[in-house]
Structures are given as structure tokens and as C-alpha cells.
Write a structure and sequence with these properties.
mainly alpha, globular
């Protein structure tokens, strides 16, 4: 998806909503939390004695999926690794234009959306959360959720494509909670708090990580 080099929070919000609504993305998020149905066991007394002896020759015959699939599912269920220790710039860094931090992107590896979200969470926790409509930061350097995603990218954590996917996972989590709008209106709702914003990101990190992202 073509992405401008200097997105604003409202542009990002609309962009990730379009990504979330695509058929390809819906295929990614549908069924991510489903597990294999357990086989029904005989419940009547004496049934086991009446059944023919059909003991499997190998323990693998008891599995409904392959061993490789079990391993892959277990790996996806692991929590995302914590962000690499790299302290945020100080309070002055919070209020400086993000373009002045662009040098921090040099040589940085790509990260998963769940890891990118963890860095965005750190930005909100350390620099503060704000709910002014579609502003990247306020006078104190606090960010909205979309602003934190963009700042995490500009600090070197993930590509612009990763920002899009992290935002789409946020929308998927909001949909599961019954919110049908965009991230921005949720962020600036009058009753919203910083604790709500951090809880949303925590839930989204878990959702993306369990899907292997």
C-alpha cells in the first residue's frame, strides 16, 4: 500500500481502516483464536469394552494435526519479546519534531506489529497520552494512539508497512470490543483515559502475538 513519507494521525487512521476492511486482511484475522475441537469420548459404562481394539501404533496417530503444526501454534502463542532496551529521548525529545529523530532509523531491523505496538505503548507510558483530535502531540509532548504509532516508526521501530499492520490490529481489537469507528474517535471520546489507551494496546499486542505477528 503506498504510504506518504510524512503521515499525520488522521491519515494513518483512515489508511489502517482501509487495510482492515480488505478481504486479504479479514482472512488474516478470521479464526486466529480458534482451536481444534476436542474429540468426543465414550460416556456410557462398558462402551470401551465393546469397542474393537484399535490402539494406535504410534503416539502421533493420536494427534489431529501434525507435530510441525503443533510446534508452530505453540510458538505463535508465546508472548512477544520485550522491546530492545533503547531508552527514549528525554522530555526535550518528546516535544521536538519527529523528523529530528530520523537518524535513529539507520541500521534498525524490521519488527513485528506486536513489537512495534510495545514500543508505541512505551511512548504513551513515558511521554504521556493525549486525546486532542488528530494532533501528533500536545505542548507537553504527549501523543494520541495513532501519534504514538507514527513516533515509534520515526524512532526506528518498524517500517511504514508495520505501522499500517499494527493499526489494523488495533482496529480488529476495537471491533471485538464493539467499537465500529476509527481509532481517533475512540481515542478522543470524552470518557477515555490513559489507562484505557494502554489497556487497548496491551490487548492488541496479545491478539497480534497469538496470531504470530
Amino acid at each position: 500500500m503506498p504510504t506518504p513519507t510524512a503521515l499525520t494521525p488522521d491519515q494513518l487512521d483512515a489508511q489502517v481502516a482501509r487495510l482492515h476492511d480488505t478481504e486479504a486482511w479479514q482472512q488474516i484475522v478470521s479464526g486466529w483464536d480458534l482451536t481444534t475441537v476436542e474429540p468426543a469420548l465414550p460416556s456410557s459404562p462398558g462402551v470401551e469394552e465393546q469397542l474393537p481394539d484399535s490402539r494406535p501404533a504410534d503416539w502421533r496417530d493420536l494427534l489431529s494435526v501434525s507435530v510441525d503444526q503443533l510446534i508452530a501454534d505453540s510458538v505463535r502463542a508465546l508472548p512477544p519479546p520485550p522491546p530492545r532496551e533503547r531508552p527514549l529521548p528525554g522530555r526535550l525529545g518528546a516535544i521536538l519534531p519527529d523528523r529530528l529523530h530520523s537518524w535513529r532509523r539507520i541500521g534498525q531491523p524490521e519488527v513485528r506489529p506486536s513489537t512495534h505496538l510495545a514500543h508505541a505503548r512505551q511512548i504513551l507510558a513515558d511521554w504521556g497520552w493525549q486525546n486532542t483530535a488528530y494532533r501528533l502531540r500536545n505542548a507537553r509532548g504527549a501523543r494520541c494512539i495513532c501519534g504514538a504509532l507514527l513516533t515509534a516508526h520515526r524512532l526506528g521501530y518498524g517500517s511504514l508497512d508495520t505501522v499500517d499492520r499494527a493499526g489494523a490490529w488495533l482496529i480488529a481489537e476495537l471491533r471485538s470490543q464493539g467499537w465500529t469507528g476509527l481509532i481517533g474517535p475512540w481515542n478522543r471520546h470524552p470518557d477515555r483515559t490513559a489507562a484505557d489507551a494502554l489497556a487497548l494496546i496491551d490487548a492488541t499486542i496479545s491478539r497480534a502475538a497469538r496470531a504470530g505477528q
